[in-house]
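User: What would this chain look like folded?
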Amino acid sequence: MSLSAQQWLQRIHTLNLPAPVKLMNVCGGHERSITMSGLRGALPKAIELIPGPGCPVCICPEEDVFEAIQLALHEPVILLAFGDMLRVPVNVPKHQPRSLEQAKAAGADIRPIASPLEALQIAQDNPSQAVVFFAAGFETTTAPVASMLAQGVPDNLYLLLSGRLTWPAVAMLLNTGQAAFHALIAPGHVATVMGLPEWEFVIQQHQMPAAVAGFTAESLLAAMYSVLRQLETGQLALDNCYPQVVRSEGNPTAQAHLQQVMQVVDANWRGVGIIPASGFSLRPEYAAHDARQQLPSYADEARRYAGAMPPGCDCAQVVLGKIYPNQCVLYGQACTPRHPIGPCMVSDEGACRIWWAGGLRQSQG
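Assistant: Here's the prediction, encoded as structure tokens.
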């Protein structure tokens, strides 16, 4: 019999914990559920919940967004992107479009989509025009893109890929000693695709408690209780607190399509830098659909602040769990959802946007 959120909270309050205990929730969807359900205020004061690097919009390289903007402005293409990507700002002079949304307003044919199937349909409907799908995301969105390519796409559909793996960012924090947390809440949707073994390194290599959680308060609190109990007893085990969806082996078909279409490469994370073996690129067999190989390049590393967060923006520190969103000096001042300076204020999975939506409107920076 599953427990209610209230029952899990009661169990957590009975634990004998050191103070403070910091738990990192990797996923932006987890952070949204935590904030909107008020879990921080319901937990014992000794427990701190730290948002982690699980926002694909937040870590998408600035130069990739810039290239998408320039392709849409200067080439006769239809450019497609997941909706949140349209508002991500890049570092350009004020008189130039600084987002895909502004490029669309300037006349570029840019269309938000919610699924790779929409990209396929648009390419089929426009056979005489190049269609570029700017595909940014983690394993859960990259796997359907891989499946689409594996099953065959029209010749006029090209991929501007900016896919990332979730676990290497956590591994980087742990390997470099930069981890400011004592236990990990791992993302259930990633584990649904990739399986549980991806997260075993947290326990095996770093002797840190970890549990996979879903997106309800009950699942999140079950995972929190699990890792807190592991801290209390010293008995570590990767716990699956999302058994309704997550299987140990993950989704073998999705993994096979990723393996067939993609290769894992070192990749840049915005404001963070290169993280080894953390990105996806298309295999040579799919070069005919690689926008970077088939279309003109608009990469411009000479731009001021090329590849960086906007000046004054602390999104990278938020993503790495080093500061809370409202500790950025721009938060709630120059940077708001209506006028985002940094990418963490853009997406519904960005910690800054989530905290703002949760009612915290003032900076403590």
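The chain has three domains: 5-53+167-241, 58-165+251-294, 315-357. If you want, I can go into more detail on any region.
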